[in-house]
Amino acid sequence: MEEFKTLIVYYSRTGNTKVVAELIQEKVGGTLVKIETKEPRPKDYRTEVEQNEKEQDNHTLPELKTIVSDFDEYNRIFIGTPTWNMAVPQAVLSFLESYNFDGKTVIPFNTHGGYGEGATFRQISANISGANILSGYTVKGREETNGVLLAIKDKNKDKVSKEVDLWLENINQLNK
Ligand SMILES: Cc1cc2nc3c(=O)[nH]c(=O)nc-3n(C[C@H](O)[C@H](O)[C@H](O)COP(=O)(O)O)c2cc1C
Question: Nearest C-alpha to atom 10 of ligand 1 is from which residue?
């Protein structure tokens, strides 16, 4: 069996994608890394929606505070992203363009507010080269407009945990 050294990177504003990242870590081990920008992001939801749209339209790549100095040592990389305007937050693209994914196994996951993964998985595939990209997992987090920010908790977290088990089993990544 191939030996994996696992990195789990994720972007998360309100914690849903983070919870999925932590569940993955519980199941397969590895190092958890949160993608953070140098410039703090807007706290206000509407302001973030507008800033993100501008960055997407202008193809802006925000500078990252996060640096994974031993990136080359990892050969299995989970990448978690929320859906923002049906795509990835631009900071995820900043991350993808900062590293060489050649020869690595890449496994995307996503949380969304009800409209699915959108272009996020396609964008991850399109912005890295030379990687073996496995089928991703997507689950509903919460629309911030509802006032409940973190939906993946309590009973729902148990349900998501079971789904994550099934997904990892299907893509043959459990017990590695
Ligand atoms: C700026 C912004 C844009 C969003 N755009 C979408 C969208 O286009 N489609 C969707 O289903 N959810 C959208 N959402 C909801 C998030 O994808 C959802 O709440 C997700 O679970 C958040 O993950 P997090 O808690 O890890 O930050 C958006 C949220 C934000 C903050």
Answer: 113
Q: Using the 8-state DSSP alphabet, how is residue 70 labeled?
A: T
**Going by C-beta distance under 8 Å and a sequence separation of 6 or more, which residues neighbour residue 6?**
28, 29, 30, 31, 74, 76, 77, 78
Q: What confidence tens digit (pLDDT) does each residue in 8-41 have?
A: 999 999 999 999 999 999 999 999 999 999 999 9
Q: Which atom of ligand 1 is nearest to the CA of 142?
A: 19
* CA of 117 relative to ligand 1 center, distance in Å: 10
| Distance of CA 11 from the midpoint of ligand 1 (Å) | 11
The structure's pTM equals: 0.96
Residue 32 phi, psi dihedral angles, 5° rounding: -95, 130
